[in-house]
Every structure is written in C-alpha cells, then in structure tokens.
Amino acid sequence: MINLFQPQVGAEELDAVAGVFHDRRLGSGRRTKAFETAFAEHLGLEAGHVVFTSSGTTALHLAVETLDLRPGDEVVLPSLGLPATAEAVAARGGRPVFCDVDRHTLNPNLEDVEAALTDRTRAVLFLHYGGRAGDIVRIAARCRELGITLMEDAACSIASRVDGRLAGTFGDLAVWSFDPGRVLVTGDGGMLYAKDPERAARTRLLARHGLVRASGFGHATLPGEPDLPEYGRGITGNDLTAAIGTVQLRRLPEMVERRREIAARYDRELAGTEGILTPPPLPEGHESTDCVYWLQLDPAVRDGVVADLLAEEIYTTSHHAPLHRFQADGDEEPPAAPLPSCDWAVARTVRLPLHPGLSDGDVATVIDALRRSVRSRLAARTDEGLTVKDTP
C-alpha cells in the first residue's frame, strides 16, 4: 500500500525514547523544556512563549480558552477545516462563524474573512491549509487595525514562510499539531504560542492544572498556602513525546525538502493533464511545508478515481463536508450558508500520498495510476454521451 501519510521515525527517535526510559522520568520534565526551547528557537521566539501540550486539539482548546468568550461572541474561521476548530470555539461558549475560501488555494483571502466579520467578532482563526501560508499578511494587518485577536492553526505549516517569516508568528496565538499525519510527529502532541507574555504565562498555568507551583521530579515543594488561582487541566506533553519531537525537529529540514521535491514532481508531471487541476503556484516570497498535496477533478469522476487508485493499493482521500454543512447533536437545522467556493472545492478535491517515505518509484506509480484512471473515467462518460458542467 502506498500510504497517504506515513510518520518518518527510526533509530534516532528510538534512542531518544530509550534515554527517557533509562532516566525513569516519563512525565513532563527536562526533555519537555528542552523541546519547547528548541521549538521556540525554530520560530525565532523566546521559550517562555510556547508550551508543549498533549495534542494539537488540546492546544487549540487552550488557545480559545484565553479569549474568555462570552455568550454571543463570534470567532470567524474557514469552513474548509477540521471539526476540532469549530468544536474548540463552541466548547468555550462562543459562536463559530464560517467564511468561504479561495476554491483553488483552499485558504481564505482577506475578502472572505471580512465578509464574515460583525460587531460581535472577537477573533479570527486562520487555517494555513495544507502547508500554505495563504493571505496571512493582509489578514493579520486587518485584525490589528480592528483590534481583533488573530489565531493561527499552523498544524500543517511548521516550515511555511512568507518573506522569511514563519507561519504561526503573524498573529496573537498559534497552534501546531504533531499527530501521525503531520510533518513533525511525536505520536501525539501539540504546541501553543502566545505573543503576549501574560497570556503565555496563563496558558502554561492552565495546562498544568492551574497550579502556580509545579510538582513531581525536580519540583519538590513544601506545604504552603493554596496556589490555584484558576482551574486548569493536565494537558502538558511529556518527556517521551518531547524526546521524539526534539529529534524530529532536528530532522525537519531534510523531511520538508523531500516533501517539496515530491510536490514539485506532482506539479510538473500532472500540470496540463486533461481533467486534472493542480494547485496554483505559490505567490512570490511564499514557501510551503507541503504537508498535503491536493488536486481537483471533475466531480462526476472524482469518487471513481479514488476507488480506482485504492484498487491499486494507492491510498487517497476526498474532502469531508465543509463545516457549515455539519450539524451537532441537538442543534437546530443550520441555514444554508452562501459559501459556494467551499462547496465547489469539496466536490472536486482529492489528496494524494505525500510523505518523505515515498520512493521515486512510488511517486511515478501514483502519477501513472492517476492519469490512467482519469483518462478512463472521462472516456467512459463521453462514450455514454454524458457531459459535465463546471469542470475544473
């Protein structure tokens, strides 16, 4: 099977885990702190502004928690994303307001965000889709003008840049995910960045049960006055996952370079193929992490192509429904939101295998199978006398 994603872990990561076992300190300790410091250095920031969490989802919930949302407060986010983003807002009493995206880049432009803003907007949650930074510069500038908090979901964009500046450093808050489908993996885990020092200190406090004084290995404390200014949760990362993450961060340049090579080959060899629309070129000054490679197909043949590739043991995925089409248990039937580009993209988008474990032969196999399937499916439609409107 040629997998859609595949974590790149080996002897170095195993040795790092063995070191944790040897020390018998598996909780949050010196390796966690070292990983936070190394990640902050990667971002060009001070270590005190980042906190390693148990998952990208917990980092997201923690970031939203610091907004102190009140009933009726709104957070604007793209409809083309994972349910976790909307869930984090709703769980803190806010109202997710979905905006449209560019149908080809799958990122919202400033105009898409502005169309969703109201006088109740407290924050914008921007997703760097697939590893592309998108229109983050203009959106960040507009949020500053309006005094709106900007959060960045940089789960796919650990090495994405605009004019040398890393995604995740443009806003007030940012989160990364290190789950097995990402670029840097720790088994599970996430990172949160807070620009404001007081907010950064609060995120660390909340991630550690709200306790001012830590306990455990290296943190012996004497009995004293209660030091629980705010209820929190135990959602910090641990030394096992931090040890893996530190090795992965060191290997990040080589892993991203291979991803970019594969994405560039897909672009080069699939561009201009009848029935296939490849992603648009990156704007000048932009660098993508290439976490996800997607293309867009005629919706009449898209699902058939996915089935054909699976039959050849090539794992691809189509896109789940946009968030404005979801309905949570107990919710009233949502109105049909006018987000035509999201709906257009979801009907056509397919993700191809992309990870450093792919050999050149694997990539060639994917390209050949895709071309054959699309050609065959389109020919079958023509033979049946059928045409498709609004093709890619």
Automatic annotation (TrEMBL):
- SUPFAM superfamilies (UniProt xref): PLP-dependent transferases
Q: Report any Pfam family annotated for this entry.
A: DegT_DnrJ_EryC1
Question: What cofactor does this one take?
Answer: pyridoxal 5'-phosphate
Q: Does the keyword Cell membrane apply?
A: no
EC nos = 2.6.1.-
Q: Which InterPro entries does UniProt cross-reference here?
A: DegT/StrS_aminotransferase (IPR000653), PyrdxlP-dep_Trfase (IPR015424), PyrdxlP-dep_Trfase_major (IPR015421), PyrdxlP-dep_Trfase_small (IPR015422)
A molecular function annotated in GO for this UniProt entry is: transaminase activity
Record keywords, A-Z: Aminotransferase, Pyridoxal phosphate, Transferase
Name the family the entry cites. Answer: Belongs to the DegT/DnrJ/EryC1 family. L-glutamine:2-deoxy-scyllo-inosose/scyllo-inosose aminotransferase subfamily.
Q: Tell me the protein's name.
A: DegT/DnrJ/EryC1/StrS family aminotransferase
Originating species: Streptomyces racemochromogenes
